[in-house]
Amino acid sequence: MELLVSSENVGFCVSNNRMVAHAHGEYVLLLNNDAALFPDALATLFDAAGSHEPTGILTLPQYDWESGELVDRGCLLDIFYNPVPNLDANRRDVAYGIGACLFLPRALWNELGGFPEWFGSMAEDMYICCLARLRGLAVTVTQTSGYRHRQGKSFGGNRVDAGKLNTTYRRRHFSERNKTAVMVICTPTLLVWPLLALHLVVLTVEGVLLSLLKWEARVWQEIYGPTLACVVREFGTLRARRRQAQRTRDVTLRRYIKPFVPSWRKLKLLRRHGIPEVR
To answer: What's residue 274's pLDDT?
Structure first.
């Protein structure tokens, strides 16, 4: 066992990239420091990897650390790239697996370029899984075993407490910015441009309404405003990254959107938990 130590906090993406660059095995397992595998998890992952040719990206069912309740069996995506937990025990093909536990060939990681370091954190798991699916590779969740995870402990937020969804300004900004980037880079065909336009309109309305309802200008100033500004400022760079990703596409639009659901996840969360608490 080796421990890689950094003199500074370089963030989730850089840390994982350094770890994989140092590794020598055929496969790599990304496992958060706030997550723990079930005893049979590694054997389950190796068996699953051996049954897929070529091997794509694998993940395990995720369970809450404290309650032991099932959180997801990988995630689907809504039309705006918001994660939708998959709870169907019979479904193995998913849009992406949570970065707290991902298993894939090291060679595939290198081909995909690892996590985008400019993301910092959030949606890097969605990005690499969507890139893999663009190449026609599967993102699969095992039907058995699993891992426990202290959700939101390492980055704050992303939990429901006392019936309310809690998040942080920093987490929400990175999430909105990076999900938008994944949408631009990975969505096949010219569908991406009307989808992006609609998404930006929805984000604008959402940001204005949430700022007014909470009577807090900080919501716009630290989450939505910077996200919209980043899309405008980095649009040329995003298009260049999109061209590079789409050159390797080996999948139809229909197949790519198979693990998408025709809904808006945020609306469902609003109905269930009300306006989120942001701190």
So the answer is: 83
